[in-house]
Amino acid sequence: MRHRLPLLAAAALLCVPGAASAAEERSFDVPRGTLATALPLVSRQGGVSISVGDARLWNGRVRPVRGRMSVEEAIRRMLAGSDARAVRVSATSWRIERRPPVAKVARRATSPPPQPPPRPSVPVDVIAPPEDDIIVTASKTDIPHANFAGVATLLGGGDLAFGGERGMDSILSRMATVSSTHLGSGRNKLFIRGIADSSFTGPTQSTVGQYLGDIRLSYNAPDPDLRLYDIQSVEVLEGPQGTLYGAGSLGGIIRVVPRAPDPDVRFVQASAGVSVTQHGDPGGDIGATLNLPVADGRHALRLVGYMVSDGGYIDNMLRGQKDTNRVDVRGGRGTFRFDAGDDWTVDLGGVYQSIKSEDAQYTDRDAPPLVRNSMVDQYARAKYGMGTIVVMKDWDGLHFQSSNAAVSHRVIERFDASKPGDPPRILDQRNATRLFVSETRLSRPYRDGLGWVIGASILDNRTRQNREYGDAFAQAPLTGVTNSITEFTGYGEATVEIVPYVVASGGLRLSHARLGGSGEDVPFALAAANRAIAIEAHRTETDLLPSASLLASPVHNVTLYVRYQEGFRPGGLAVDSNFVRRFRNDRVQTVEGGVRFGEKGHTPFDANIAVSHSRWRDIQADFIDSNGFPSTANIGDGRITSISGALAVRPMPGLSFDLGAVYNHSRVDKLFAEALRSIVVQNASAGGIVIGTPVGADGTVPTSVLIGRLGQIPNVARYAARAAVNYETVMGDEDFRLNGWANYVGPSRLGIGPILGEGQGDYVDTGLAMRLGNGRARPVADADQPLRRARQPLLAGHAVRRG
Predict the structure, then answer these.
(1) What are the b/e assignments for 773-782, b being 16+ CB within 10 Å?
(2) Which one, 80, 195, 322, 416, has the greatest CB density within 10 A?
């Protein structure tokens, strides 16, 4: 009965009518200036997406807009007297294009020229907002995408919610360049552009920086997998992004932008869904969003809450259990926007989410499909909480922002550590993270060929990992580790149009970090013997990260760029058996070049291709130590070459085709981890996994053999591809949308080392979603069919009601 409650609640919620109404007018305060200056303000204050069809319009002068009026009136006033006009794409999106030339009519004509057939009216939500917003806000200078030197993918919140809000899976299914370990919700590590270290969540920092708005979500913890309810957009910037985002952006950043409280609109939105899984249990989800103006529209409160239950589909025959791996998610988010006067705005917010996984989601290789035989209940728990304070002000073309947050993140995992033929053994691992981060910056949004940002930040992170090993009745503590870092940073970056249609940028980031670590639950005898060298360590390090780029638009709708970026991760302490070992910081240097054709969402055809080469030194990676437990070390130096491309074709209104692909070639070309050498020797001498490995008389393994066995950087497929089709039209008084996709993930390796060096990947994931409805009620049905993968086909129904 417990598992059916979300389904009953979902069905009940579909019958709840909307209880609020939307206001027709909004408050605008947009000064006179260029279109590049005014457009972000109109978009932000109007709560709509606005794109530009001709990049040459950016520097055109527009008029000021002040007072309360509709969005349509505000845009009309802004463009009055200019050579631009606005075309409404949907209820929440507009496109600005150049006015057509006035047709010359002969004086002797006695009748007006024939008029073109009227364009059909566009109902609410029939045409989704363009996938690429006009502004890359993750650049921290609100630079137009046409002037951004790099690969930036912008996903609209409405598109991500199509088919149900699924968290990080919604992003992964739409991008070929982002990958995950798929260990389980709330336990995954994410990778971008071939920069990957390991499958486990250890003391190493994630190679992908994750942000909610401008707040960092984590430091060296797994992806919290926050569900994407009430999201405005998601920006993915391929890395490194060290100058602006510092440590943890080796592969890039993922920035989720939530919808802000709106003091001019009162509404309630509710959604509910049910799902049926082949060979599994049913599931369901419910969610609600409330926006409430306060004090006559001066302030506003926005609340989001949700409950999700995903049915299990794996049977544990040894314990007589069916569909054991159910996942339950509970969470919410709240933000109160306070108008402090004189254009000062203060946002007070909080986030909480808990994830409960009943069992692991893997199957045994030699067992029947979707079957595992284990005497251990391998559950997992993840709890994430965050409180935020964000202070903002816009004046005289400048933007000030101070973002501050405190984070608590706990992950508890149980693993089956049994050996063949032995009684069941259990490994429990607990990771507790406490993070405080504060960043203050002053920026000039890009306009008139100039944009810049300067800022400073303080980060303090402490992570404690404890482990216990034994049977179900008696467990003994294993050596754990605590890592801490306090980082002080200053950075700056400027973007300048040096000649017409040629834009250059450069920046620097200076970071000074104090690092510390100590062993936890270290055996007394070992601690007494090695107190000075193995139990704790402290040190400082200073890093300078430069960046530079050059972008040119030699002809209309063709953009060329080249850029150089660096990134790093500080070192720390890791556990190896009962010892505590230090590992050094690692560093990535990347050169990238690319070309873009057309403008995504506004031309019948657009395409892009990017080529990057990265040099990765002192790679931090996790591997399995001689006792069979995860450990961390600097395993060597490596090189990564990545080629990615995308193509979009819109042959007719409402129909689009999208293709994307990525190729990664990665190798560790210098290996210097003695721990890995000893493990290879042990396996070779014991007739284990690495049978036949040549071992010298001195017990060493040749470096060439090690590189051949261990050299591929893990978890990133050598190649991946994605294809999607989207169709939208009007059926009577309802709008109809159909979206289908297929993702292919090529082969990769599970990890570094002889034990983790097994192959994985090589599967296709397909999906289909359909929606038929109007602006107030939108039932959705979707199907997900992975091929050659543990998860089975999923059929789901979803509906949204809004008042």
Answers:
(1) beeeebbbbb
(2) 195
Distance CA 336, CA 294 (A): 10
Report DSSP state, residue 444.
E
**Cα–Cα dist 78/45, whole Å:** 13
546: Cβ contacts below 8 Å, ≥ 6 apart: 243, 506, 507, 508, 564, 566
> CA-to-CA distance for 377 and 321, rounded, in angstroms?
10
Question: Which residues lie below 8 Å from residue 187, measured CB to CB, with a gap of 6+?
Answer: 181, 201, 222, 357, 380, 382, 411, 413
Q: Which amino acid is at 101?
A: P
Distance CA 444, CA 400 (A): 9
CA angle 347, 351, 357 (to 5 degrees): 170
- The tokens for 63 are 């008029």
| 401: enclosing H helix or E strand | strand 398-416
**Contact present, 302 and 334 (Cβ < 8 Å):** yes
Cα 156 → chain centroid: 13
CB 215, CB 255: distance < 8 Å: no
The long-range contacts involving 700-707, CB below 8 angstroms and separated by at least 24 positions, are 701/677, 703/671, 706/671, 706/676, 706/677, 706/680, 707/667, 707/668, 707/669, 707/671
pLDDT per residue over 49-97, tens digit each? 888 877 678 777 788 888 788 888 889 888 887 878 888 877 777 888 8
Q: Are 727 and 654 in contact (CB under 8 A)?
A: yes
* DSSP classification of residue 80: T
| Cα distance between residue 229 and residue 800, in whole Å | 12
Among residues 702, 697, 693, the alpha carbon closest in space to that of 754 is found at 693
d(CA 216, CA 203): 18
- d(CA 649, CA 668) in angstroms, rounded, equals 38
User: Of 313, 323, 314, 425, which Cα lies nearest the Cα of 372?
Assistant: 314
Beta partners for residue 88, in sequence order: 94
Say which amino acid occupies 194: G
d(CA 611, CA 600): 20
Identify residue 749 by its one-letter amino acid code.
R
* pTM score of the predicted model: 0.79
